[in-house]
Amino acid sequence: xxxxxxxxxxxxxxxxxxxxxxxxxxxxxxxxxxxxxxxxxxxxxxxxxxxxxxxxxxxxxxxxxxxxxxxxxxxxxxxxxxxxxxxxxxxxxxxxxxxxxxxxxxxxxxxxxxxxxxxxxxxxxxxxxxxxxxxxxxxxxxxxxxxxxxxxxxxxxxxxxxxxxxxxxxxxxxxxxxxxxxxxxxxxxxxxxxxxxxxxxxxxxxxxxxxxxxxxxxxxxxxxxxxxxxxxx
Length: 233
Hints:
Layout: H1 2-6, E1 11-14, H2 18-23, E2 30-31, H3 34-39, H4 43-52, E3 61-64, H5 70-81, E4 87-89, H6 94-99, H7 128-134, E5 140-144, H8 148-153, E6 160-161, H9 164-167, H10 178-187, E7 195-199, H11 206-216, E8 221-224, H12 228-232
Parallel strand pairs: 1-2, 1-3, 3-4, 5-6, 5-7, 7-8
């Protein structure tokens, strides 16, 4: 990331609250609080956000937060859903970035508006009607990313539980090593060639993190039910 920043060849996005961004942030980063994205959470609204941040179709994007990667994951998935494929998660939180002694800045960054196209990627998205049919099909597996107690209280019928805390790391990285996540997936009886749909409690943050964890572990066909259990109920 630091190499790309020096080349001015990347857009870094901070999805923490605006006041946290204003205090300090990774150099060159722009502010996009998750609440702002959720307030415009339609394909055209997201493209408008990309354009306002000066992000063109091909520009690499890296997203970070200070909430173990869950907020960043939801934003990254949303960008990829509207067609910005070159989107990545920073592997560490902002706090860990600072603890490594890496540079921070207080400059409020803005960039000229630029055009961005809209290319919906239906392969990574699931809505309620899709989940309704998928839960009856053996090759489609629902994964509930909430904590065990919430899952045991109630969940979508047929779902398996992989709590977000299992895929998250404890050494500063937002995700565990791919081989560890792969072991969790195998222990839940999820074949690598299955279609997996992740969901959580409300807006798809915890399940967004699980979405990327499964991708990291080699599960190729993963979808996010972003409206999650709140809408389902």
